[in-house]
Every structure is written in structure tokens, then in C-alpha cells.
Design goal:
The protein is of the alpha/beta class. It has helices at residues 2-12, 17-34, 36-49, 55-81, 84-90, 99-107, 121-131, 146-156, 172-179, 212-219, 254-271, and strands spanning 91-95, 111-114, 136-140, 162-166, 183-186, 197-202, 205-210, 223-231, 238-242. The chain is built from 11 helices and 9 strands.
């Protein structure tokens, strides 16, 4: 079944992007009806993060979000198997893409690319490998299906000079890769439990948030540059923005840094809330004594 699904995705990526985008959008509307548990998670997240919105507004944003999520899943096939020249044409890069190379060459400082969980994060990863000179490294969540896991690794490593490490492995190979000059593509905003995390506000709700971005940036003297990818309507392609480095980050206070990072992510989410990953249980881990939120 898995291999048949992957074979179908290989075929679909040959379609013009507007057609593939339309298929993804339609699939998303179907999943909004059928995937009831994920729909409840998305609506609950929006209720917690945007209590000032009406129920109708949250429902409308959640429905559109499912369209963007499904689009990102289908269009990932293009990133994994599509023609490189075609992918380059579809991605428009904005901002200081040369920062990582310049910082390493002139100051010997590695770069951390911070990429929050918008639906276009795989596009951001591809853009880093396709359009800038510094080799990269990242962490990924091992998939339970070994066939999908192998395709994910292959797809994310097909461009440029990249290394990826499983989240459940030792961090030492990643640190060594960074010390050797690789940029680190880091996704800072998922709930991985209380280990190495602190409960800091995310839209006013205490959320278990990893302290690693602050601690690693300080320990390795890293420049921290946010990177955000946006899927454009109608299959018109993608925009990947290499933003200015976070000012004053990191400090000696990792918890304060993490809270500031969450506030920064909140501001970016408000700019395009439908493309943030609301189907993830961001508030799954609760402080001791607090009831579950899902």
C-alpha cells in the first residue's frame, strides 16, 4: 500500500503545479470532513490561541488550513522527485541568502536557520540547499514506516550538501557537523515533552518549548536567521524569506530567549495563520497538576 501511494505521488508531481495545487486543496476539504480527530485538534488550537475570534472564524481558518496542509503533502512529491530546474523556477527567494556563507567565511560563525512549522517548511529546506552556498544539517523525526522513512531521507538529501540526523540519536554528530561549518536547519516549535524544555507562553498558553535553540546558539556562537516559506495561492509557486537575524539572541537566559522566540513566532503566525501547522498538538504536555487541553 505504501509503495503504491508513493508511486502515485511520483506520477502526480509531473502535473502542472496549478493542477496539483487544486487537487491538494480539494483533498484538504475532504480531509476536513473525514479526519475528525485532526479537525478537533486544529479547532482546539485556534480556540486556545485566538479566543477573540468567533467560532465561525476559527472554523473557516481551520477548513482553509486543511487545504494548505493537503497541498503541502502532495507538493512534497515535487520536492522529492521533481526536476531540479523546475523547482528552482517555482521558488522565489527573498532576503539575505548569503548570510551563512559570509558569517562563516569572515567571522568563523556557523548559522542556525530557524524555520517554524508553517506548511511550507520542506520548501524552505529545499531553498537552503538549492540557493545558498553553505552546506546544511538538520534533525528529523524517524517515521514508523521504513519505506516512507527512507524516501523522506532521500528526498531531503537530494539537493546540495546536506546531512540529517534522527531526533532519537545522539546530538554529538550534529554538533560536530556544525563545528565543521554546516548551517543548522532547526524547527523550534513542536511539543516534544518536558525534557530539555520549559513551559513558556505561546499565545498566552504555557507550552512545552525546547530550550535548545538558545543553548546551542550560545554554546556554538551561532548566528540565528529565521527562514519562512509561503505557499502561494493557485499553484503560483513559493516564496522563501531569509529574514534578518534575531536581535539580541541568544542571551545568558535560555528561558527568556525561548519566550521571546515564541513571541516572534506568534507575530509571524498572525501574518498568515492559515498556513501554520494547527493539526499538531502544540499543548499536549501540561505543567504538573494541569488538566489536558485536548
Amino acid at each position: 500500500m505504501t509503495r503504491a501511494l508513493l508511486a502515485l505521488l511520483r506520477l502526480l508531481q509531473r502535473l502542472p503545479l496549478p493542477v496539483l495545487a487544486a487537487l491538494g486543496w480539494g483533498l484538504g476539504q475532504l480531509l476536513f470532513v473525514l479526519a475528525r480527530s485532526r479537525r478537533r485538534v486544529a479547532l482546539r488550537n485556534l480556540e486556545l490561541c485566538f479566543p477573540e475570534w468567533s467560532a465561525a472564524q476559527r472554523h473557516r481558518v481551520a477548513r482553509r488550513h486543511f487545504g494548505w496542509v493537503a497541498r503541502s503533502l502532495l507538493e512534497r512529491a515535487l520536492l522529492w522527485w521533481g526536476d531540479e530546474a523546475r523547482i528552482r523556477r517555482l521558488i522565489r527567494v527573498e532576503g539575505d541568502i548569503e548570510l551563512a556563507e559570509r558569517e562563516m567565511r569572515t567571522r568563523g560563525r556557523p548559522t542556525m536557520w530557524l524555520c517554524p512549522h508553517f506548511v511550507g517548511l520542506d520548501v524552505a529546506g529545499a531553498a537552503i540547499l538549492l540557493f545558498q552556498q553553505r552546506p546544511g544539517a538538520s534533525i528529523y523525526q524517524t517515521q514508523s514506516d521504513p519505506v516512507i522513512d527512507a524516501e523522506m531521507r532521500r528526498g531531503r538529501l537530494r539537493f546540495g550538501d546536506a546531512q540529517i540526523f534522527a531526533r532519537n540519536e545522539s546530538v554529538k554528530p550534529l554538533v560536530r557537523a556544525i563545528r565543521e561549518g554546516r548551517g543548522f536547519f532547526n524547527l523550534p516549535d513542536m511539543d516534544f515533552g518536558e525534557k530539555d524544555a520549559a513551559f513558556v507562553p505561546f499565545f498566552g498558553v504555557p507550552a512545552a518549548t525546547l530550550l535548545a535553540p538558545s543553548r546551542m546558539a550560545r554554546a556554538l556562537d551561532m548566528v540565528v536567521q529565521p527562514v519562512i516559506a509561503e505557499l502561494l495561492p493557485g499553484g503560483r509557486g513559493y516564496v522563501v524569506r531569509f529574514l534578518d537575524p534575531l536581535p539580541g539572541f541568544p542571551t545568558t537566559d535560555a528561558v527568556a530567549d525561548t519566550a521571546a522566540l515564541n513571541r516572534w513566532i506568534e507575530d509571524r503566525i498572525r501574518e498568515r495563520p492559515e498556513q501554520y501547522l494547527w493539526v499538531h498538538k502544540r499543548f499536549k504536555t501540561r505543567p504538573a497538576g494541569e488538566p489536558p487541553l485536548y
